[in-house]
Each structure stands twice: as structure tokens, then as C-alpha cells.
UniProtKB/TrEMBL annotation:
InterPro entries to which the protein is assigned, alphabetical: HTH_LacI (IPR000843), Lambda_DNA-bd_dom_sf (IPR010982)
Record-linked Pfam families: LacI
Cross-referenced CDD domains: HTH_LacI
Stretches assigned to the HTH lacI-type domain: 20-74
Keywords, comma-separated and alphabetical: DNA-binding, Transcription, Transcription regulation
Protein name: LacI family transcriptional regulator
Signal peptide feature range: none
């Protein structure tokens, strides 16, 4: 990528330059790719002045981080998945709103996955750790010993999950349900953060 400029004019029209990548920014700035990456990720190893210069350079040249690459590097996707049985979306709508509200406030996106209760073992198998999401929250009215054993086994294999297995009371107002959801979202993210930063010998807990 040669001759990068932020904007060009042609027949009185502004044209935006193509997006630069880390290699381009390193070449233009004279810093190594590693230094540029650390500066853009606010590393303490890089001085404030260098961070400021490289961030401005990144903005001027339309740099956008590759989210897939960032996820692979951090071993995190910043995505949560809400799992619940089919045909129960309306029942848990306020709880789901609470989970989404809390997760967004903490920098996470959310997906919703609905499954057939009769095929829960297969659903769990499909949701084994594949770096597609950081954690799951299950919304179920009840579980049996076999299901609990499955949850425990998958947790040991590295699937970060929590579950809410209490029925939603008929007289439970929307505000209270959202509060339940926010608590679930916070608890899951705290578990994800602990696991991410835990010593290796505890990574399977």
C-alpha cells in the first residue's frame, strides 16, 4: 500500500483512502508492527506521546481493527449466548432484555439460541467451546439429574456457563425480571473474566 493519504480530491469530490492495516501503519510511522499494535491496544509499554501519534495516524488512514484477529489473539470474542427452549421467547423476554442490557454495558454482544428440550444433549454438544462465544446462560424452568450432569461435564471441558432454572412467577413484574437478567449477565461475565485471567492450572474449573 503506497502513497497513503487521508483524503484526495478529484473533480471537486472527496474520496476516502483505502483502509490501512497494521503493516501499513508500521511502514508509514517507522515503528515495528508490534509497537503499533501495543499502542493501539493501550499497552503500558508504550509512551503516551507515541500512543497519541499512532492513534492519530490510524484515524487518518482509516484503520479498523480486524475483530476476528483480535478475538484469536485475546482468545475472547466478547460475545455471550442466551440459550432457551423453543416457544419460550415471550416468557423470558424481560429477563433477556436484562441480560442484554448488562452485557452491552460491559462491552459484550449477545446471541440467542433456541433448542428443543428433547434434544438438549445434542444442543450442548454443538455448543462445546469453539471460540465462537465466551459464555452461555441457560434459561430453563427445571432440570433433571442427567441434564445437571451434562452441564457439569461441559463446564469441566471449558464451556463457561450459568443457568437459571427457577420458573418465572406469574406475578413477577417486568422490572424484577429485567433485574434477574442483569444479575445473570453480570455473573456470567465475572466468571468469563476470572477464567480468562486465571492461572493455567485453574483453567478447567
Amino acid at each position: 500500500m503506497h502513497g497513503l493519504t487521508n483524503k484526495k480530491t478529484f473533480d471537486n469530490k472527496q474520496l476516502t483512502a483505502p483502509m490501512a492495516n497494521l503493516k501499513d501503519l508500521a511502514r508509514i510511522s517507522g515503528f515495528s508492527i508490534s509497537t503499533v499494535s501495543k499502542a493501539l491496544n493501550n499497552s503500558d509499554e508504550i509512551s503516551s506521546l507515541t500512543k497519541k501519534k499512532l492513534r492519530k495516524l490510524a484515524t487518518d488512514h482509516n484503520y479498523i481493527p480486524n475483530k476476528t484477529a483480535c478475538a484469536l489473539r485475546k482468545q475472547k470474542t466478547d460475545i455471550l449466548m442466551i440459550c432457551l427452549p423453543k416457544q419460550q421467547l415471550c416468557k423470558y423476554s424481560a429477563v433477556i432484555e436484562g441480560i442484554i442490557d448488562k452485557s452491552q454495558s460491559l462491552g459484550y454482544q449477545t446471541l440467542i439460541h433456541q433448542f428443543d428440550l428433547k434434544t438438549l444433549p445434542q444442543a450442548l454438544k454443538q455448543l462445546e467451546p469453539q471460540r465462537t462465544v465466551d459464555g452461555l446462560v441457560f434459561l430453563l424452568e427445571r432440570t433433571d439429574p442427567a441434564t445437571e450432569n451434562m452441564f457439569e461435564q461441559h463446564a469441566k471441558e471449558g464451556l463457561v456457563l450459568i443457568k437459571h432454572t427457577k420458573p418465572i412467577a406469574p406475578n413477577c413484574d417486568t422490572k424484577k425480571q429485567r433485574g434477574i437478567g442483569r444479575k445473570l449477565g453480570k455473573a456470567l461475565i465475572e466468571r468469563i473474566d476470572w477464567k480468562t485471567n486465571a492461572p493455567e492450572q485453574f483453567s478447567k474449573i
